Amino acid sequence: MGQLADCGWVGSTIGSMHPPDNADTWTGLTSEPLPVQQASEWVALPRCGGIVTFNGTARDHSEGRPDVSALEYEAYVDHVEPKLTAIAEQARKQWPDLGRIAMIHRMGPVAIGESAVVVAVSAPHRDHAFEAARYCIDTLKGTVPIWKRESWANGESWGLEPQHVQDVTAFSSASEATP
Fold it and tell me: Which value, in Å, is the radius of gyration of the alpha carbons in the chain?
């Protein structure tokens, strides 16, 4: 892979791409297509009336780059699973009534239009489901060591400039997690 291959990504899967049987958090990192529908269905619980699923897809543009043609993600694998677990734990501290949380990210090449990340959260009421899902995706983007390389007609970049990995506890609420 690219210049970040030394960070631990070897093109495999960490976490499970199947929902856990006896847990309330499902996290993962995979080179396979994301199980977006399955994640959304898995978080559903009889006590939870609110489910929010965020499906982040690879887009054909970015700031100053109207013609992005390819995306590739790499990660510091040893740090991804602990960060995802910490995000879920922090979300549960802020919204103790949460049901299930799923956070799964793609690695390797991701075609334009394909899912790059999915976050799904359930809660008894919609307000906590929305707030917690927003917190999870914003905190994931700001704390988990995953890098994106964009390629476009006039070049490519790993996009390291805007991302400075922070500690999960730096994000205390959905409104504060928003850049």
Answer: 16
The Cα–Cα gap between 55 and 9 comes to 22
Half-sphere exposure of 173 (CA within 13 A, CB side): 3
User: Taking a C-beta distance cutoff of 8 angstroms, is the pair 114, 125 a contact?
Assistant: no
**Tokens standing for 172?**
């205390």
pTM for the model stands at 0.83
CATH superfamily of 5-162: Molybdopterin biosynthesis MoaE subunit (3.90.1170.40)
Are 119 and 45 in contact by the 8 Å Cβ rule? The answer is no
- pLDDT tens sequence across 70-128: 999 999 889 999 999 999 999 999 999 999 999 999 999 999 999 999 999 999 999 99
